[in-house]
Amino acid sequence: MSREGLPARRERTQWEVVAFLAFIGMSAAFGIDASLPAFDEMRPDVGLPPGSNRITLAITVYFLGMAGGQIVYGPLSDRFGRMATLRVGMAIYAVGAAGSMLATDFGFLLGSRLVWGLGASAASLMNLAILRDLYSGTRMARMMSLVTAVFLAGPVVTPLVAEGILRAASWRWIYACGLVLAVAIVTWSLRFGETLHPDNRRPLRVGPTVDAFRQVVTCRRTVLYAATLLFVDGAFFIFLGSTQQVFDIIYGRADQFAFLFAASAIPFAIGFLLVSPAIGRWGAHRVGLAVLSAALALAVALLGLTLAADGVPEFWTWFSFMVVGNTLLALVTPVAMSMALEPMGDLAGTAAGILGLGGITAASLLAAFVGMQIHDSTTPWAVGYVVYGAIGLVLLVAAGRTPEPAACQPAVAT
Q: What is the 3-state secondary structure (H, E, C) of the chain?
């Protein structure tokens, strides 16, 4: 483990870091994964007609909340530390989860989901900032892959737990689990301890904060890798926001959604376990190019099959292409994010916040635009994958050809 930026008073094993970061990552994903199986039950309770695709806005506003919080938590975490910021976020997370659990109309649900997302953004951002405190470059990319592989136990278990709760009780009890997660994370954070070295804390003043923002957004290498992730996430978020609707409305398989959605996380975990040594051998950028190229090739093939089938390919064909393609898209994340943060050094919190604000906001809107076009055909999904994947690949190639400019802060050696 890197000693750079790590207070000497607290030793952590690699697997302790992986377990903690995977768990706080699961808390951010819980607000999405737990919601999807409950959409059918939620619609009448919040005033929506059966089959309404407006329910997917509950996912969109959650993402927007996650994006909005990033720009606040980043500078706060660089000033007051990662753990204090995480605990504040978990308090907001609990408020949003409680409001969502008690919602009786769609507007109140969306407002509560926005607050929940604001809290979840602290977990999402601290995940990245803590990693950057402890690691950098290829080492960070490999650790992010391991964290994600463990984190993917959440998407396997959460839909099955949600389905079990739905069979015995109201969907509201699913959201009550969010309160338990918030308490568990606060408790664990007390044991894990702070990762931001006191010497690396930055003043919370307008001038230094503006300078930090300028440094992030004028670093061409950082911006290109972040833009790559924006479009890759735009494609991936279609999967998160629209899968339940496609299962239910287009294929009439709502009863199979929880099990198959959970099963789809297994290839993701395998992929992240395999990509970590691949990054160590061939480098993060080359691995990113390979997996994104493969994802785009699959997207083009799926679009051809979809058009040939008048928008509704055979279910298992669609599902198989979707799972493999999404796995490949997800593998771009540790590459693009670690390389984007590499030049930022002790600006990790602020940089991650800026990138999160722009990236998550834009990606969720890109995905929502596609999701709202999906009615009785999967063609919009397939087109979205091809377009967003192609733009992401062009940006990734450009990022790899861009030397680190003098304006970027050099990364801490690991």
A: CCCCCCCCCCCCCHHHHHHHHHHHHHHHHHHHHCCHHHHHHHHHHCCCCCCCHHHHHHHHHHHHHHHHHHHHHHHHHHHHCHHHHHHHHHHHHHHHHHHHHHCCCHHHHHHHHHHHHHHHHHHHHHHHHHHHHHCCHHHHHHHHHHHHHHHCHHHHHHHHHHHHHHHHCCCHHHHHHHHHHHHHHHHHHHHHCCCCCHHHCCCCCHHHHHHHHHHHHCCHHHHHHHHHHHHHHHHHHHHHHHHHHHHHHHCCCHHHHHHHHHHHHHHHHHHHHHHHHHHHHHCHHHHHHHHHHHHHHHHHHHHHHHHHCCCCCCHHHHHHHHHHHHHHHHHHHHHHHHHHHHHHHHHHHHHHHHHHHHHHHHHHHHHHHHHCCCCCCCHHHHHHHHHHHHHHHHHHHHHHCCCCCCCCCCCCCC
The model carries a pTM of: 0.72
Query: Which residue range forms the structural domain that includes residue 247?
Result: 14-400
Q: What is the pLDDT along the chain (414 residues), one digit of tens a residue?
A: 444 444 444 678 888 999 999 999 889 889 888 888 888 899 999 999 887 878 888 988 998 898 888 778 888 888 889 999 999 999 999 999 999 999 999 999 999 999 999 999 999 888 888 887 888 777 887 888 788 777 777 777 888 888 889 888 999 999 999 999 999 999 999 999 998 888 878 777 677 667 777 877 888 888 899 899 899 989 988 887 788 889 888 998 888 887 888 888 888 878 877 887 888 788 888 999 999 999 999 999 999 999 999 999 999 999 999 999 999 998 888 788 778 877 776 666 677 777 777 777 788 889 888 988 888 899 999 999 999 999 999 999 998 887 765 446 543 333
Specify the number of domains making up the chain.
1
CATH number at residue 312: 1.20.1250.20
